[in-house]
Amino acid sequence: MLELLASYEVRSVVGLFDNDRAGAEQFNGLGSSHGFSDGEDLLHRRHTKGYVHAHLLPVPDERRDFAPDQIAYRMLELEHYYSDEVLQANGVADAPTYPGAKVFQIKDSQKTAFAEAAKTLNAAGFTNFSPLFIRLLKIVGIPPVGASEGAT
Q1: 94-136 pLDDT, tens per residue?
Q2: pTM > 0.85: yes or no
Q3: Where are the beta strands (DSSP E) in the chain?
Q4: Angstrom distance (rounded) from CA 94 to CA 2
Q5: Among 1-5, 63-67, 68-72, 141-145, which is the least confidently predicted range?
Q6: How far, in Å, CA of 103 to CA of 98, rounded?
Q7: CA dist 39 to 100, 106, 140, 148, Å?
Q8: Among candidates 11, 52, 47, which has minimal Cα distance to 31?
């Protein structure tokens, strides 16, 4: 889809990929044969025609265990940006991958209901999203609110 969008889109488009096995493999498949080149860093690719970007979810510090170096063991999904308390209260957090582990999957069967419930969360529920939003704004060339000129 991103490759197709690059042929006609004149607005910024960012394809956001979960940092799980499937997402990382798809992101890594976006190479020069698909018109993509390196971007800002290892989490970003830019289409050579300009406005289309691909971005792999950055890993929040508290979720490091969800995205080890080996792609086959990665499990970080966008929903993992919410706190454990929010995920558990909404029945989205699955059991730990093994007893005593911090790592857990997101229940696919609950994602739609959670997306609806997330609309009612206050701003504190989205605290972990700030670094992601700042990165996305930078990629598309929009300064974050409150940023002074010349700030990076």
Answers
A1: 999 888 889 999 999 999 999 999 999 998 889 889 889 988 9
A2: yes
A3: 13-17, 19-20, 36-38, 44-47, 52-56, 75-76, 93-96, 104-106
A4: 31
A5: 141-145
A6: 8
A7: 38, 29, 12, 24
A8: 47
Contact yes or no for 59/67 (Cβ under 8 A): yes
- What is the number of residues in the chain? 152
Pairing of strands 52-56, 13-17: parallel
Return d(Cα 88, Cα 62) in angstroms, integer: 16
* Residue written as token pair 């989490």: 43
Kindly state the tokens that stand for 77.
Answer: 């999904």
Give me the pLDDT at residue 152, please: 46
